[in-house]
């Protein structure tokens, strides 16, 4: 299913947080949404999973406005991992993942196979019988991703799925989801991961998309410096030839700033 975000503006509590965003996400492709803290990534994605209604414009999934579908039909089309999912119930990992099957008619064999596959991809099968209340941050995050996968939707919205994930899971889990047949919209902070796994990247700043397109073309040092205030060096990956960004930490601290951080 394709996704089209068409002239979308979003207001929350009387404040415009996203302004006039238009992006086409072809069926089966992955869109990375990047940008500094507070640039509007989560707010934009919330319109995809119907937590926010556009003030102007429309979000279309498979050419149908998301608000025009019944909640059940929407849940069969779009699954989402929000940034702050609470998990306070004393459920086992398998029970939480199986919640993803809720929008579908019960079919034990299919449900088992889809749940098993989701748990394998996110590498939580070994945790199946554990209470989610006992999990580490990264383990919980992988369970929440597995729940979204178990919903088996053609469109997947992931808001910072790499939160809490270690290097292996950042590189394996999220990359494998992006490579799947699903249409994926994913907010990411790691620009090198975005370059590696996304078909196109939208860069947000102050609620607007300031650049969108092929990752290698969009993520140029000058644009990154303008948006983030940090200038990276651009190199080619020695094996894939893909562009990679090298960042140098800003270690220059003035004596005054250094003093300000010392507790008295
Ligand atoms: N309910 C709200 N009321 C008022 N302002 C809000 C509300 N929710 C978000 N904002 C503001 O909207 C802006 C965009 O927030 P959003 O969460 O979309 O940013 P983000 O790009 O996802 O940031 P981050 O990288 O920190 O997750 C921020 O300035 C935020 O403070």
UniProtKB/TrEMBL annotation:
GO terms for molecular function: ATP binding; ATP hydrolysis activity. It holds the Pfam family ABC_tran. Gene3D superfamilies: P-loop containing nucleotide triphosphate hydrolases (3.40.50.300). Residues 3-231 form the ABC transporter domain. Keywords: ATP-binding, Nucleotide-binding, Transport. PROSITE patterns: ABC_TRANSPORTER_1, ABC_TRANSPORTER_2. The keyword Nucleotide-binding applies. InterPro entries: AAA+_ATPase, ABC_transporter-like_ATP-bd, ABC_transporter-like_CS, P-loop_NTPase. This is ABC transporter ATP-binding protein. It comes from Luteipulveratus mongoliensis.
């Amino acid at each position: 299913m394709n996704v089209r975000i068409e002239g979308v503006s979003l207001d929350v509590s009387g404040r415009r947080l996203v302004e006039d965003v238009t992006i086409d996400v072809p069926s089966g492709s992955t869109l990375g949404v990047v940008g500094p803290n507070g640039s509007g990534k989560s707010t934009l994605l919330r319109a995809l999973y119907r937590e926010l209604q556009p003030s102007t414009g429309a979000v279309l999934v498979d050419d149908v406005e998301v608000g025009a579908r019944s909640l059940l039909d929407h849940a069969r089309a779009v699954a989402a991992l929000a940034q702050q999912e609470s998990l306070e119930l004393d459920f086992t990992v398998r029970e939480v993942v199986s919640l993803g099957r809720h929008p579908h008619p019960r079919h034990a064999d299919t449900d088992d196979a889809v749940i098993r596959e989701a748990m394998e991809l996110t590498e939580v099968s070994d945790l199946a019988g554990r209470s989610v209340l006992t999990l580490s941050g990264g383990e919980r995050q992988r369970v929440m991703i597995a729940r979204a996968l178990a919903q088996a939707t053609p469109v997947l919205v992931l808001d910072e799925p790499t939160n809490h994930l270690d290097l292996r899971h950042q590189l394996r889990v999220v990359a494998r989801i992006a490579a799947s047949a699903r249409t994926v919209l994913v907010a990411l902070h790691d620009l090198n991961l975005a370059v590696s796994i996304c078909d196109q990247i939208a860069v947000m700043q102050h609620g607007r998309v300031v650049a969108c397109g092929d990752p290698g073309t969009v993520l140029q040092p000058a644009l990154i410096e303008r948006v983030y205030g940090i200038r990276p060096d651009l190199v080619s990956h020695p094996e894939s030839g893909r562009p990679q960004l090298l960042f140098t930490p800003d270690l220059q601290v003035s004596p005054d700033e250094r003093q300000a951080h010392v507790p008295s």
